[in-house]
Structures are given as structure tokens and as C-alpha cells.
Design goal:
Blueprint lengths: L1 H8 L10 E6 L8 H12 L3 E7 L11 H11 L7 E4 L11 H13 L3 E4 L10 H34 L12 E6 L5 E5 L11 E6 L2 H15 L5 H11 L11 H9 L7 E3 L2 E2 L7 E2 L6 E3 L9 H15 L4 H15 L4 H6 L6 H8 L2 H7 L5 H30 L4 E3 L5 E4 L3 E12 L5 E4 L10 E7 L6 E8 H4 L4 H6 L8 E2 L3 H15 L1
């Protein structure tokens, strides 16, 4: 039946061939051949395919982190796609979203933009008939149910490992270290920061760390319990001594609080403080939902000393009612003009931000009760962080590609200026997209500082500022000393210098390297 369906849609020999794109997705790192299998099936289905948008190793639970799918949708909706069909292996390749309507919405967006979706691994034609629509709805619901069932099984397995005394993620913390053991309990190695196990049968446990770090942890407990000092006072003392945290950062009240309240220092293994199931809304769980195993690690703090620290913390925090906490928070907002976790933790007269999270469910809820709306600030910071990451990735890609071809690319004092092959300079700028009041996209780039570079590269972002739309690559004399913003928004005037990749820049560097060799 499947072969017949393909044959029915196959164009005649003398018909004009239709340009198509493929979208493939791999669910986990262990599915090393999944994408190749999908490509082979798509290639057999449509020999006219010429584009690929890949999301290798990404979860299919939501759109976050799915750069390939975001780029595909952006190209389709901005009319930058030069294909008429997107070929997907099966319905679940869009993603196993908890809400089946989400994957349907992406197909709908493509169809509205004039791009048709074909499924080469399904035994039905995606022709808009009642039968095909019904089968797609069933397939999407089955994909969502698969994610829910898998989530339950994974959670049960994690709970069992916790109760067996094995660590499930997270850094070791000051005074402790993560030891990697095999399935028989034999030590394999000590894991450094950002090092993780590579075999499913391996396990991680916590063991005492360096003596100086253990001494610092015990000093913190003694100062808090026996000397009666506050968390903020202890943090300031450690900073004055030049002592840093396990992450090589200065101390804050919140970091002291984490040490004083974490049961791992008395050997307890506690997990599931927060849940993020199916990549939906993150929630903080109450004590009844915690998964724990007591006394499974070697303690570095006396249990009675730990219990006294908890009693002191409870007594200090219970002195202020929720209404009083909000009055103090409102006063802090009036003084500072804005609120954040670090601002709250740095205020001596204000309870720690963790207390506000505990009493009000989240900091955002507490902010709302005192009349503060940080949503715009959060969104701006998230976008700015994303732009910085993309900018750094592009710069590093340019350097690595040129050096890989035998050339040289040296970063100058300006973070976005490179000297290539010791012959010419390249300035790199980020073109952020902002919508005008009329709904049209408008790109903004920072003004260039310092001497003009020989070649200008501007990264033009898609309207959501999450993916790269294209690149402006132009010699300085072609821009004519005009602001870069003008070139980014005058696509017709500067159309010759817009490219989908950085290949023209690499070709320019290659030609200069050859010339220099002669």
C-alpha cells in the first residue's frame, strides 16, 4: 500500500520537478543511526530533495532547543524557502508533545505559508481527507502518550536509584566530591566539574572532598550555630578572607544558606525538590513528594549541629509574617527601583529569596503582590543572553574554519574584530530584530567603534531573535561609511551582499591565503 501511495504521487517523467526540503529529528544521543535512516527513507521517497534541517540529539517535547525546526518555520513564514514541499518521515518526527495540537500547529503554519507536508513513513497520503486527518490525530495522541508513559518509567527508575544511595545530577558542592563507580561498586575515577558518567551501568556517589573545603563547611556551621552570626555576615567574612565557593565565585547569603540547609552534608540523599516533567512548567515540590535515603553518604557535618542550624533558621524566618515580608519587599523595591534574587539576598533587612519562593510559591508571585512586573526585563535578558551565545558561536566558527583551512584568524582587542591571514580585518556585528508598530521587522546593529574594518559581517536574526536568518558580508567601501542598520534593512539595495552562510567570507580568506603564498 505504501509503495502504491508513493507511486500515485510520483510526477510523470516529463513533469516539472518540485523542490522539496527534508526535516529529520533524532530523539536521543543513543539513536546514532536514526537520522541516517530517516534520510534514506526520504531520499527514496523524493529524489528532488535538496535541503536539510536537522535537530540531532534534541528532545521532542517542546520547541525550546529545536534550532532546526525553528529555522525551518522561520524560513517558511518569511518566504525565504525556495521549496514547495517538506518531507518528514512520520507524524511523531515533529515531536512527542504533551499537547497533540502543538505538532498540528506547525504543520498548519507551513500549509498557510504555501508549503505542503508529506510523510514518507506513514501508510496514508497527507491529502487533507477525513481519513488522513483522523489518522494524524491518532498518531499525535499516541506520540504524546508515549512521552507520558516513558516519563513515568524514568521517574520510577530515578527514585529507585536515589533510595539505593546513588546521586542523580547536580554538583557535589563545597567539601564534597563525586566518585564514579561501576555496577559492582568498584571505584573508577573522581569526576571533576562538568564531567559526567558515560555508561548507563555506572553510578555516582558523594564522598568527602579536600580537607580545607571540609574545614570551611564546618566553620560556616560553627559560626552560624555557636557564634550566632547571620548568613550575610558569614558570607562577608569569607569574601574578606579571599575564600571562594566551589564554583570559584564570591559568597552570597544564598550560597551560605544552601550549605546550611542541604542534607547531603550529613550523608542524606534527597531528590525531587523541583519537578520539570515533560518539560512543562517547573514546580517546587512539598516535603511529602521528596525522595530520600538517609545516611547513605559519609557525613562531614555532625548531625546534631546540622539540626541546630535548621532550628535556628526556622526560628529566624518565623519571626516575620507573610504580610511583613511583603512590606519589607515593597520597601526594597522603592529603594532600588527593581527586584531580583541577588538584590533580595544582598538586603540585610530582607528575608532570603528562597523564603519568598517557599512562602509565595515563586518570586514572580511575590513581585506581583508588591506591584512589580519583571516580565519585560526577563524577556529582554533572555534574548540578550541568546544573542551573546549566537555571536560567540559565529566568531568561533569563523576562526576554526579559517584555521582549519590553513589560514589564520586572530581576535583583536575588539571582541568582534578579526585579523585574517595577517592581511585584512573583519568586523562582526549582531543584527537584532525588532518589530515596528506596523508589524514589519526592523534590524538594529551596534555602532562600530574604532577604525573601520576591511570587511563587515552582520548576523541578521529571525524575528524571534532565536535563530540566524542570514548574513550581510560586504567590503567596507560597498557600505560607504553608512550605518550598518541601513544596509540590514535595505535588502533590495544591498541584496548582492546577503548570504545564507558564511561561505563567501571563507572563500575570501582562502583566496587571500593563496595570494600570500605566491
Amino acid at each position: 500500500m505504501m509503495e502504491q501511495a508513493h507511486t500515485a504521487r510520483r510526477p510523470a517523467e516529463n513533469a516539472q520537478r518540485v523542490r522539496a526540503a527534508q526535516y529529520v529529528r533524532m530523539s536521543t544521543d543513543r539513536q546514532s543511526f536514526s537520522i541516517d535512516n530517516q534520510k534514506d527513507a526520504i531520499r527514496a521517497f523524493a529524489a528532488a530533495m535538496n535541503y536539510a534541517y536537522e535537530d540531532a540529539g534534541r528532545s521532542g517535547l517542546n520547541l525550546e532547543g529545536r534550532a532546526g525546526l525553528q529555522r525551518l518555520l522561520a524560513d517558511v513564514e518569511t518566504k525565504n524557502a525556495d521549496f514547495e514541499i517538506i518531507i518528514v518521515y512520520d507524524v511523531s518526527r515533529w515531536g512527542r508533545f504533551p499537547n497533540p495540537d502543538e505538532s498540528a500547529s506547525y504543520e498548519y503554519r507551513c500549509r498557510v505559508a504555501g508549503v505542503r507536508i508529506e510523510y514518507c513513513g506513514e501508510q496514508f497520503a497527507n491529502d487533507g481527507s477525513i481519513g488522513s486527518d483522523l489518522l494524524k490525530a491518532i498518531k499525535r495522541t499516541m506520540a504524546a502518550e508515549h512521552s507520558r508513559v516513558l516519563s513515568v518509567k524514568v521517574f520510577a527508575g530515578q527514585c529507585r536509584l536515589i533510595q539505593m544511595g546513588y546521586r542523580q545530577g547536580g554538583s557535589s558542592g563545597l567539601g564534597l566530591r563525586r566518585r564514579l563507580i561501576d555496577q559492582h561498586g568498584r571505584t573508577k575515577t573522581m569526576l571533576a566539574l562538568k564531567e559526567y558518567k558515560s555508561l548507563q551501568t555506572d553510578r555516582v556517589i558523594l564522598v568527602p572532598g579536600p580537607p580545607d573545603e571540609i574545614a570551611t563547611v564546618r566553620w560556616i556551621y560553627n559560626e552560624y550555630v555557636k557564634a550566632g552570626r547571620t548568613e550575610l555576615q558569614i558570607a562577608r567574612s569569607l569574601n574578606a578572607k579571599g575564600v571562594v565557593t566551589d564554583l570559584n565565585r564570591s559568597w552570597k547569603r544564598e550560597s551560605i544558606h544552601q550549605i546550611l540547609s542541604n542534607e547531603k552534608y550529613v550523608g542524606n540523599n534527597v531528590w525531587n525538590r523541583q519537578s520539570f516533567k515533560l518539560k512543562q512548567r517547573k514546580v517546587t515540590n512539598d516535603t511529602a513528594r521528596l525522595v530520600r535515603a538517609d545516611g547513605v553518604f559519609e557525613a562531614i557535618v555532625d548531625r546534631k549541629l546540622f539540626e541546630r542550624a535548621q532550628a535556628i533558621a526556622d526560628a529566624r524566618s518565623s519571626k516575620m509574617s507573610n504580610d511583613q515580608m511583603l512590606v519589607v519587599l515593597a520597601g526594597l523595591l522603592q529603594r532600588r527601583g527593581k527586584l531580583s534574587g541577588p538584590i533580595i539576598d544582598a538586603a540585610a533587612d530582607c528575608p532570603p529569596s528562597s523564603r519568598y519562593r517557599k512562602e509565595f510559591g515563586s518570586l514572580l508571585r511575590a513581585y506581583k503582590l508588591v506591584g512589580y512586573d519583571p516580565s519585560q526585563n526577563y524577556r529582554f535578558l533572555d534574548i540578550r543572553r541568546r544573542l551573546r551565545e549566537i555571536f560567540e558561536e559565529v566568531v568561533q566558527t569563523i576562526i576554526a574554519t579559517i584555521e582549519g583551512a590553513g589560514g589564520s584568524a586572530v581576535r583583536q582587542s575588539g571582541l568582534g574584530v578579526l585579523r585574517v591571514n595577517d592581511e585584512f580585518t573583519v568586523s562582526i556585528a549582531m543584527g537584532r530584530c525588532r518589530n515596528t508598530p506596523y508589524g514589519y521587522p526592523h534590524w538594529l546593529a551596534p555602532a562600530q567603534r574604532g577604525p573601520a574594518a576591511d570587511v563587515k559581517v552582520a548576523i541578521r536574526m529571525s524575528p524571534d531573535n532565536q535563530t540566524i536568518l542570514d548574513y550581510l558580508i560586504a567590503p567596507e567601501n560597498e557600505i560607504g561609511g553608512k550605518p550598518l542598520n541601513r544596509a540590514l534593512n535595505k535588502r533590495l539595495e544591498f541584496n548582492t551582499f546577503f548570504f545564507k552562510s558564511l561561505d563567501p567570507l571563507f572563500a575570501l580568506a582562502e583566496r587571500n591565503a593563496i595570494t600570500a603564498a605566491r
